[in-house]
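User
Class, as today's exercise, I want you to study this protein, comparing sequence with structure tokens, and judge whether sequence predicts the tokens.
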Amino acid sequence: MHICADGTLGDLLMVIDMQNVYLEGQPWGCVGTSKILTEIKTLIENHVPDNVIFTRYMPPENPVGTWERYNIENKEINENAWMSEMIDDCRPYLADYPLFTKSRYSSYSNAEVKALAARARRVLLCGVVAECCVLFTLLSGIDAGDKMVYLKDACSGVSREHELMVENIAAYYAPMHTEVMTCREYMESRDSVL
């Protein structure tokens, strides 16, 4: 991890669950996974955020409560290893950036992710599913006291309606806890600071 002059991890881009099962046409497919991938790649390849991490969702091995029923209902998907693999376009980045596994919706359920986020100046959210794992991560980050940036054109959900719902929730907590912006707006704001 790159440590910034102020001793923080700076802006930490958290790329949430870019796995095959969320590609358009797959069982949990989102409406714009391919489109947001372009935005995410632009941020990473232009080295705009100070640090980058990836997360992936894997079903709980010893489920409790409703997670047990979740595992039963999604057995076919869970047993297909390809579904859980990272999207091909993301794989090259994993040579340079860490991948963390979680078995809950929120990326903050992984202790290492939560600890890294606590060291960041801001946590930038992108990935899938907007109304599930991204939303849970957003709310967990707010509860943890981290400044969250919701990159609205780099988050994909099962419908545009759901994406707008999450965008509105994120905007509700601004400016104290959150910022909502496009990737271009984020890059322009970084250019003005540098």
